[in-house]
Amino acid sequence: MLVIWLLLQGLTLLGVANYLRHLPRDRQIEAPDGVVILLSVRDEWDGGAALIERLKAQSAPFRLCIATSGQCPAAEALAERERGWVQIVHAGVANDEGQKVHKLRAALRALRPDDRYIVFIDADIEPPARLVGRLLFPLVRDKADVVTGYRLLLPRATPVHALIGAVEMQLATLPRFASATMPWGGAMALTRETAERLGLEAAMAGRLSDDMAIGLAGWRAKLRLRPVRDLLVASPLDGDGRAALGFGVRQYRHIVANSPSMWMLATLAVAVQSAGWVWAFNWGGWAAVAIGYGAAWGRALVRARIIAGVVDRGQARAARRSLWWDIAAPFVVTWCHLALQIAAITSSHIRWGGWDYWLQRGRVVRMAKVDQNPAGN
């Protein structure tokens, strides 16, 4: 058992090292004409001054299409100031699909004839200046059909937020293989031709998760889905501790609803690690515990190098809060990860962006407006 535990921990360390090894150094970009960014926002959106500033600093030109449900004063004011650059699409309120999906489908219907490349982003990201150009590079060079980055959580300085950040860090620094990539809607791009080939607007109809719908449609069509490893995009994790835990459960509930087999495979992998820690503490002795901690500290060191190489200094400082759990109590991270996965299958209900949704086989079967007004897309 000690040898098996040593091999298991060694493989996890090698997996993170593989991510660092394949982190691009040259980070080439493309800046073609005909790029449109689709951004879904809530009607209460404050205008995202920091996001707009970062978008204006992008190394590739684009047009910004903001999709709202009804009237969003901040979006309307931005469009008035930035005439010719910002387009507003009013989608109305959905009744049988995620409100974000509903808005993005309306934006897809509003594409202009010269829109050749479609980029999806979330309103709560802090994108680097290379984001758009890096997403476009594989598309322009015909190296991929769908290109994606992934989130790098910036947790608040509380134990619960850092713990959820540590769980998400396990996913963010997994080795990225094109054959097993699922796109992330916070930073994703595809060509207009690919969107039409997928029947993208129809493929998203009735769904709650935009990225899961696009990813599964891409898999079925045998498209080339490519991750850009240096695009771990900063995404603040705000709210209270309960909201942070809810975020973790919601991510896996999306997976359960859309691909139970994917959830099962992920849960099995984490369950093996969790059982290994139980064995180490109860029967493995100090040698087993030392092996577990040694591998965890090694992963933390490698992840710190990855973080430093993909985000700016301030973002890196916040992201590194997640690493303290790997250093102090890596077994807690694994057990928490498993708990979130198990909690995901206890209900088909997801609360997201001010709405309650009930799902069946990945489709929204009922939805209701939440009384309070939590933050979200």
Keywords:
377 residues, alpha/beta, Spore Coat Polysaccharide Biosynthesis Protein SpsA, Chain A, seven-stranded mixed sheet, three-stranded antiparallel sheet, 10 strands
Detailed description of the structure:
By secondary structure, the protein is of the alpha/beta class. It has helices at residues 2-21, 49-56, 73-81, 99-109, 131-140, 159-172, 192-198, 200-204, 210-220, 241-258, 260-310, 313-319, 323-328, 330-344; strands spanning 35-40, 63-68, 86-90, 117-121, 146-155, 187-191, 225-237, 349-352, 355-360, 363-369. The protein has a domain at 29-240: Alpha-Beta Complex (Spore Coat Polysaccharide Biosynthesis Protein SpsA, Chain A), CATH 3.90.550. 51% of the residues lie in helices and 18% in strands. The strands form 2 sheets. The chain has a 7-stranded mixed β-sheet, sandwiched between helices. The chain has a 3-stranded antiparallel β-sheet with strand order 8-9-10, covered by helices on one side. The radius of gyration is 21 Å and the shape is globular. The N and C termini lie far apart (47 Å). The mean pLDDT is 96.
Coarse structural class: alpha/beta
SS summary, helix count: 14
Series of secondary-structure elements, N-terminal to C-terminal: HEHEHEHEHEHEHHHEHHHHHEEE
Task: Label the overall shape.
Answer: globular
User: What's the CATH superfamily of the domain at 29-240, by name?
Assistant: Spore Coat Polysaccharide Biosynthesis Protein SpsA, Chain A
Provide the residue-averaged pLDDT: 96
Q: What's the count of strands?
A: 10
Can you list the strand order of the major beta sheet? 3-2-1-4-6-5-7
Identify the CATH architecture of the domain at 29-240: Alpha-Beta Complex
CATH class (first level) name of the domain at 29-240: Alpha Beta
Sheet with the most strands? Answer: 7 strands, mixed
Alpha carbon gyration radius: 21 Å
Beta fraction: 15-25%
CATH fold node name of the domain at 29-240: Spore Coat Polysaccharide Biosynthesis Protein SpsA, Chain A
- Termini separation: 47 Å
From the structure provided, what is the oligomeric state, counting identical versus distinct chains? Answer: single chain
- Indicate the percent of residues in helices: 40-55%
Question: Runs with pLDDT <50, length 5+?
Answer: none
